[in-house]
Amino acid sequence: MPLIIDYRSDTVTRPTPAMLEAMFTAKVGDDVLGEDPSVQLLEQKAAAIFGMEAGLFCPSGTMTNQIAIKVHTQPGDEVICDALSHIYLYEGGGIAFNSGASVRLLQGNNGRITAQQVAGAINPNDVHKPQTTLVSLENTSNRGGGSCYSLDDLQAIHEICHQNQLKLHLDGARLFNALVATGQQAETYGKIFHSISICLSKGLGTPVGSVLLGTESFIARSRRIRKVLGGGMRQAGYLAAAGIYALDHHVKRLALDHEHAKTIAAALQKKDFVGEMMPVETNIIIFEVKGRFTPKTLAAKLEEKHIKVMPISPTQVRMVLHIDIHTTMVDYTLETLEEL
Q: What is the structure's pLDDT at 29?
């Protein structure tokens, strides 16, 4: 069977042998009863990285985001976010289903919104309008091509939220990519946001899981919502051990994914069938396909060469670099693109 080079997402990764060993040897207990030492260690470790009080291990980033929105809002409230946000586009209508909240969509720059936009979107105290209670940001922005927020922009949004008594949540599914790319400090994020969701099963390469971070009281309320949503897992320490290993060993190597993405992007930009491309800041490449290919026909052509990419719109293809893509695979991809 030929080797498949899968650029569709960084969710397709498999545990490394060392990660599997950590999972096999994990100390476990019943986490719903609060007795799994590996889960507790992961939650404490993740919280400490960001200087936050507590964490909650969940099966997915969708669940951590939806729990945070539920805790921060009441039915009829309004959430401000970018129109490309994962919480709006890719979580099954969960804001409406789980929280009964309205959404104010802003047209940002590659998935990033500004303090000025947030300030202009806050509803007045008017019974005819939903009460604005939460702002949610995404860093990096998936549909923004892996774009990163500057700290100045984050702090400005934080100040607007503080002035208007709004909560500020971060969908940090690829936050470690942003930290590695920008050199920003994790502890700074803990001071800016009321809650942070970090995903372990994307760039960090674990098989399952995300961690929600916040104050002890916020996490206590979140734990109750996790139970209601069916997110309580029993001997989850086998999965938590993968997350602990990833935080210890897989963060710095994200820089290689970013380097690979820039290398492939440079090769793509030379091709006549590639149009506009979003700036490649981290591990995601999103580009327009034109001329002799469509996104679907280009994906089919590459798959003939055992390379998988993802058409994400009638005009765009996405490629995502991750821990399972090695330099030799990138070299083969460059050779294949040269032949197209």
A: 97
